[in-house]
Write a structure and sequence with these properties.
Number of domains: 2
Oligomer: single chain
Helix content: over 70%
InterPro entries: EcsB_ABC (IPR010288)
Distance between the termini: 55 Å
Number of helices: 14
Structural class: mainly alpha
Organism: Bacillus aquiflavi
Keywords: Membrane, Transmembrane, Transmembrane helix
GO cellular component, one term: membrane
Number of strands: 0
Protein name: ABC transporter permease
Length: 389
């Protein structure tokens, strides 16, 4: 069996596996009554974009489409299509093993380039009819984000080597901010149709990605890392589906031997009352478990982004209100999850102190969220005329 034949066998097996994953939620009734109608409706809507500019697009800035492209390029990894058992067989047949990795690398390049191509095609009516971009600018949009996606997939592979989760998140956040500033500069060059700057940037992304990743294709010592990346990609759709399953526990298991904060678990409140005890317990769990902390700020971040990007004032106010309601609902769920789902604290759910403590925590966390959203709203109103169109 050649490397090409083995790769195709693995690829078809992967497609079959992912098909089985989606079949768990997409039975024939869902396909007939939801998926097919959605595809037909989107086809007609997309066709209408070529003849008439949608009203909501008049309030959308060109930079928003650039932002969408930037967010999408952070999704995905280079695939190798290797399995656990390959360490026994393929390492003894190095040329076959390396051949599969090389073919998988080329396939990943083409696959993710096609993904950016699909995004570009979806945006074509907006680029041509509304923003009146040239063919060169449209091609540069595709080129910039394709090359950037290849580079980010390479860098994300390096991040997987880092075992400490906090350090990995810090580096990942720094990379996101750094490339956001890089893209901001490239956005100006792209709007001004500066072909040389955009082409040099894309070339730099591609060369850097190839310089880092291509040498790893021939390294057998990278097997465990390749296998780790492959497992992440293989089950990502399963994780995505489970996120929408209310019957599945989603709380992450804490692997840290000592918590990052409150390591000695000292008392927060000097005065010990039933209310302060419940509040202290909630605060420590809330801060120690990143799932709760990140979910809280994720709601605020999504609402803040929408308030910033969507121009109409009445929609900003509407989003502000929905953000507060979402926070209120989430805080209530988090409180019950932390206290009522635990067998020890569950017995306190009927006490008056439980409801008093819940009310205090809800008010404090809600006021923090309202303050952040209010600051974002005021800044968005002050600088809305200075945002690039």
């Amino acid at each position: 069996m050649s490397s090409k034949q083995l790769f195709l066998k693995r690829l078809f097996a992967e497609w079959k596996f992912q098909y089985g994953v989606f079949r768990t939620v997409l039975d024939w009734t869902v396909i007939v009554y939801l998926v097919i109608p959605a595809i037909v409706i989107f086809t007609f809507i997309y066709r209408s974009w070529w003849f008439e500019t949608p009203e909501w697009l008049t309030y959308t800035q060109l930079s928003a489409l650039f932002l969408v492209g930037y967010l999408i390029v952070w999704v995905g990894h280079f695939r190798t299509y290797i399995l656990d058992a390959d360490i026994v067989f393929l390492i003894k047949h190095q040329q076959l093993f390396i051949g599969v990795k090389k073919i998988a690398f080329v396939y990943s390049l083409i696959f993710h380039a096609l993904g950016i191509g699909v995004l570009t095609v979806i945006f074509l009516p907006f680029f041509i009819r509304h923003f009146q971009l040239s063919n060169v600018q449209i091609f540069l949009y595709f080129l910039l984000f394709t090359s950037l996606k290849w580079l980010l997939m390479t860098l994300k592979r390096l991040l997987i080597r880092i075992e400490r989760r906090f350090l990995k998140q810090v580096i990942n956040t720094l990379l996101f901010i750094i490339f956001a500033f890089v893209l901001a500069g490239l956005y100006v060059a792209w709007v001004n149709e500066d072909v040389l700057v955009c082409f040099l940037a894309a070339t730099t992304f591609i060369v850097t990605s190839g310089f880092i990743y291509i040498p790893t294709l021939a390294k057998l010592s990278e097997f465990n890392l390749d296998l780790m990346v492959e497992k992440l990609e293989r089950i990502k759709y399963i994780g995505f589906i489970l996120q929408f399953s209310y019957g599945v526990e989603k709380t992450k298991v804490m692997t840290r031997t000592k918590p990052l904060l409150f390591r000695r678990s000292q008392r927060i409140f000097k005065k010990r009352t039933p209310e302060s005890g419940l509040i202290e317990l909630f605060i420590k769990v809330f801060i120690r478990n990143p799932l709760y902390l990140f979910s809280y700020f994720k709601i605020i971040a999504v609402s803040s982004t929408a308030i910033t990007l969507i121009p109409p004032v009445w929609i900003k106010i509407l989003i502000f209100g929905f953000g507060i309601v979402a926070l209120l609902f989430w805080i209530s769920l988090a409180w019950e999850k932390i206290l009522l789902d635990h067998p020890i604290t569950k017995k306190y759910g009927q006490l008056n102190a439980y409801f008093v403590a819940k009310k205090k925590v809800t008010i404090i966390l809600l006021l923090v969220g309202i303050f952040i959203l209010l600051v974002v709203f005021i800044l968005a109103m002050m600088f809305r005329n200075f945002l690039p169109h």
